[in-house]
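sorry for the late reply, my laptop died twice this morning and i had to redo everyting from scratch. anyway the thing you sent over, i finally got around to it. pasting the sequence first so we're on the same page, its 497 residues, then the predicted structure underneath. double check i copied it right bc i was rushing
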Amino acid sequence: MTLWDERVWTLFRRQWRHTVTYWSVFFSFGLCIAFLGPTILDLRCQTHSTLQQITWVFFSQQFFLLLGSSLGGLFKRTLLSSLWALFTCTVIISLIFALIPLCYNVLMLSIALAITGMAMGVIDTVANLQLVKLYQKDSAIFLQVLHFFIGLGALVSPLVADPFLSEETCLLAANSTAVNSTFNLKHLRSSLTGPGAALTNVSQYPLYIQGIALTQVSYAFWIMALINLPVPIGVLGLMYHERLLPCSGTSPRLLEQRPAAETQRAHIFHCCNLAKLRGRPASFFILHIVGGAILFVTDGIIGSYSGFVYTYAVSPPLLMAHKTAGYLDSIFWAAITLSRLVFIYLSYRFSAPRLIILSLIGVVVVHGLLLIFYTSQVFLFIGTTVLGLCISSVFPSMLAFTEDVLEYKGCATTVLVTSASTGEMILQLLVGSIIQDQGSYVFMLCCTIASFIGFCLFILFLYVRHIHKNSYSHHTDCTKDTHMKELPSSLPGSRVE
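ok and here's the structure:
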C-alpha cells in the first residue's frame, strides 16, 4: 500500500518546486503565530509598558492578519503577482524579526506586529489559493502538508525563544533591586496568550514599568530572522526558474504574464464582480457563507483553547500546578502538528466529507467528556491531546471540499481563509470577555457550544451541497436544451419544423 498513487506522485514531481515553496512560506506563517505569547513579558520590559498596554499588541497582529487575508485574493490572478507577494511578505517577516529588538515603546511594537500580521494574512490566502489552483481535485493531501508546516513553525519559535526568556526579572530599578521578582513570571507568561488576554484581569499584577531592561530576548528574534531567511530566498529562486525576473533575460513566461495582468487589471475585485455572480443559484452563495461559518467556529476554537486552557487549568476546580499546566498549550500544538502529518495519508485514503464529519464528531465528543470529567487533571491532558488530533484537519479538508463543490470557479479560498482569521480573533475576544465576567469555569462550556454549532453547520453544508448539485445539473440541462433548439437555425440549409 503506497501513500499515494502514481498519478498524484506524477503531479507532485511536475510541480514540486511550486509546492515546496508554498509549504516553506507556511513555515514562516507558523513562526509568527507562536512567538508572541512566550516573549510578551520580555517585550513589556523592553517597551516599559504596562500589562494592559502590551497585551493589545495581540489584537494589532490579529486584526491586520484579517485584513491581509482579505487582501490576499488580489494577488491570485497571475503567478507573477502571487510569487512577488509571497517574496515581499517573507522578506518583511525576517526584517520585522530583526527590528523588533529596536522597538522601545509599545506603539512602535504594535506597528511592527501589524505589518507582520498583514504579511501573514497575505501568505495565508495566496499559498492556499495557489496550491488549490495547482492540484484542484487532488489538493486535499497537499493542503494537509501545507498546514503541517504551520504547526512545525509554531513548535520551533517557542523553542528558539525559551533559552532567552527572563526567569525572575526583566527590569532592574535604580537601586539595583529586582522589581518583578515577587511574581511567578512563568505563570504570568502562560496567562497572557492571544487577543483575549487583554480582557482578562491583569490589573492584579501591578508590575513596574521603570528601570533598566535586562531581557536578552533580542537574540531569539535575530535567530528567528535567520531561520526564516531561506524562505524568501527560495521564493526568489522559484521566480528565477520560472523566468519571472527581469534578470532572467528574454522570457516567454514573463511576456505571457504581462498581458494577463493587464487584462485582469480592471477585474482585480473579481470576487465582487456582479456580472460574474449574476445567474448563480442561491445555494452558491449559501455554500460560501456556511463554509466560512464552519471555519470561523473551528479556527476560533483553536485560538480560544490555546489561549485560555492554561487559565482554565490553574483555576478552580482543577487548581493545577502552574508548571504542569504550562505544558497544555505545547501538547495541544504538538497534537495538531502530528495529526496533520497523519492526515496527509488519511486524506488520500478517505474523502474530505468523511474526514470532516469524523473530526467534528470527535471535537464535540471530546468537549462533552471534558465537561463531564471537569475535575480530572489527567483527563484534561488526554482531552487536550485528542482535541488537537481531531480539529487539526478541518481547515485543509474543508477548503479542498468547498472548492471541489464549487468547481474551483469562485472565490471560496479567500472567503474561507478570511472567515477563519476572523473567527480566531473574534472568538478569543468573546471567550476572554465571558471568562472575565463569569469566571474561567465557563471556558469549556463555551468551547462545547461552539463545537456543536460547527457540527450542525457542516450538516447544513452537506444539505445545501445536495441542493446545489441538483440545481446546477438542472441549469446545465436547460442550457444544453436551449443550445440544441437554437442550433438548427444557425446551420446553413437547415430547416426548422
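Residues 178-182, 254-269, 482-497 have pLDDT under 50 and may be disordered.
thats about all i looked at so far, will dig more tmrw
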